[in-house]
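Subject: two folds for Thursday's group meeting

Dear M.,

Sorry for the delay on this. The cluster queue was jammed most of the week, so I only got both jobs back this morning. I'm pasting them in the order they finished. Each block is the input sequence followed by the predicted structure tokens. Could you check whether the formatting survives your parser before we put anything on slides? The first protein is the one we discussed after the seminar.
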Amino acid sequence: MSPLRLPPLPTLREIIRLYGLRAEKQLAQNFILDLNLTDKIVKYAGKNLEGAYVCEVGPGPGGITRSILNRGASQVVVVEKDKRFMPSLQMLAEASEGRLQVFNDDILKFNMENIFPETVKKDWHGDLPDVHIIGNLPFNVSTPLIIRWLAAVSNHSGPFVYGRSRMLLTFQKEVAERLTAPPNHPQRSRPSVMAQHLCHVKHCFTIPGKACVPTPDVDIGVVHFTPLKEPLIKLPFHLVEKVVRSVFHFRQKYCRKGVEILFPYPMMKELTNEMFESSGVDPTRIAPSLSMEEINGLCLAYSAICDRIPGLIDYNYR
């Protein structure tokens, strides 16, 4: 059986003219109007979306939405904060024969735990659920949003109540490179570690900025995330994030300097020494050179110290 396809519709450029739409630069919006390109993006969500459940973030005029629907998704939920796009998205909903639901909401506040039926849920350690999150994200929300979703991966909440839901998201090319950078790569950073200890992360391809309207100053990276069955660092997200943030705070200096800021001054030297002795990490290494195993060792050492010293986990440098 071939996937359901949308009936003939006005082109995206016609939609933009019809509703007087334009991308707002202050909201870091960029439209992708080439449906061949939106088809290519959606293809990387999975070989076949027929019968899948998809949440699209920031659909704008609905280019990627059309490609998702044309690949036969069973249910598509789009969350768009900008109410100017509601008429064009509602037109798509009417053409989708009940497969598209439109929400005028802020994805940072939107509850994704009840948007799909219970029957789609899979055991975390079993097969992947047929649930996908897709988004051409505004640049100003992409980094805080992926950190929030990675936290949700770690505790199986939000869109991950269904199991290991996959994500296909766009970022500035530099951010995409950071998310996928291995140790010793020039772009290795906090997002690299936080993403890769929880997910298999793949930089699928790069979209030239000139393919977007209006043309941004940077190219765009398309990144795919598949949550791992077991995190590489088996500790609470907030603890791992705190250690990683501190270690990378002084990126090109000895990692000892970053570890020191985990502790109040009176106990700084003693506990910093303990962390390196316990983990076996060389304190004269720089953060981007550390392997995931070495960062895991530092996190385990810090966790043990926090267990011993009440309230230390709540201490924040500056």
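Second protein, same layout:
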Amino acid sequence: PGQCALEQSFVTVGEEGEVVVQCTVNLPAKGRTVLGRAAADILGRTLPDLVRSALLYGSLDAAARTALRYHVCCVQDQAIVRSQLDNRGLVAFVANGSVLPRASGDDDRPLEGEKVVKFQSPQAMEVEFHLPNLGQTIRGMGIEKGITLIVGGGFHGKSTLLEALQVGPYNKIPGDGREFVVSVETSVKIRAEDGRSVSSVNISPFINNLPFGQDTTCFTSKDASGSTSQACNIVEALEMGATCFFIDEDTCATNFMIRDAKMMKLVAKEKEPITPFVQKVRALRDERDVSTVLVVGGSGDYFDVADRVVLLDRYACADVTNEAVRIAREDPTIAVDSYPFGDLLSRRLVPGYLGAGGKVVARSSKVVQWGETDLDLVGLEQIVSLGQTEAVARW
């Protein structure tokens, strides 16, 4: 159970409408003795009663039938809106009236109360979608392909908007508040993961000329830095077919994101191995058709490369693209000169190379026990259920 309506293997619907439910039943026992009569009662009476009451439409009262129909229609319409994004030149959509803030950091339910500000799109970015199952037309903010900046002061809702977008590939249950905050399925949240393990990744589009001639076209490290880990995360996402990146500067390596003009004057380019993301983001857009939605509050360098800039002020959203363009023209900087992206190498797993040598189990939604090693998945912010982590572990 959770806020996202995820496809689950234990409940499936066949092509002809048949519903298949898989479940486990703990049969009763006393010590080493099977309690046969109790087991027969569970399998012959309790389980059938549960099937009739939970799975048969005819067993539901009128209110439950209405709620079920609305749930199905709502989820289906979310998928329909998402399927239309690419053809309309969008990577994401945020419906007017959406409730983006969550109850707390460990409670994914919507925040409630009089102070909750519902989302309202800037007029210049407003688009509409028709919902065929619910029979409604909704309006909201369409985020176009390209480079979109989300700016604003601290605690004004920038990261809250991005966090809603990063789970946009998933359908939500009715009442979540983000039902029609949808993103393309191939969108990926990118962040730095200081200390992560890296194996044979070509990070040369971002990092070259390391001391002692270390090769970056096939980079391996058991303890990657913030910048190299973020470069690896981008390259790995591209290898898997990502078409949109969601990035929050709060979880990024600063030296990977920007390198200002003053630092460039002090440290010559040939002595700096890192080509910052600001100098590659346009190449990602133009050469690889990869969009970027970036939360930024500490550097105006990205104004020079942005296609659209939205401002969050007390959770209210405004289009400030023209003002950002004017500022960039008045104060141009060499720090955002763009460079070609570079090549990606083809990689494949060697059979048997990832053998765990022991038990493989998902201990939580963010930790996989891999033999005697615990794999930390905290950096994979788009994992929203234990079932997803179990699928990762078993893959």
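Two things I noticed about the second structure. The mean pLDDT is 93. The two ends are 22 Å apart (CA to CA).

Cheers,
T.
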